[in-house]
Amino acid sequence: MSIADHGMMFKDLAEMPLFRYVAPESVDGVLERCSILDLHKNEVLIRQGDDNRSLFVVLSGELNVRFDSPDNDTFTVLGPGETIGEMSLIDQKGTSAYVVAACDSRLLVFDEDSIWSLVRSSHAAACNLLNIITARLRNINSALRTNAP
Predict the structure, then answer these.
(1) Rounded to whole angstroms, how far apart are CA atoms 74 and 60?
(2) How far, in Å, CA of 107 to CA of 117, rounded?
(3) Longest C-alpha distance within the chain, in Å?
């Protein structure tokens, strides 16, 4: 089911990091190809090592990122507006963690073609994606420094 079928419009997304400063005409046709995914509490979205070809944007709810097992302690929590799957989508390697719904959650799903179409059509979206990835790497570096012996 597409985003339009859920009554969602670009204005609903405009404040989310991926869409900040993105002109609405840049997403014409792209959002129509996206779908909505509803997850129930404790449902696994991504398993560590999986092949992933989608980028997910949290519309509502929260997702826990966990290493080594879906039952391990949560490394970080991702909430509305945050993205999941960008690293494995870009580098075409297995996913680096488990992602589990902390509560009932709704996600916007970009398949590989759709996210690259968005990046090609909007310089702002491409910059936003770089900023998202950079912030994610900085958070990981900070956690590594905190936990270093």
Answers:
(1) 19
(2) 19
(3) 51
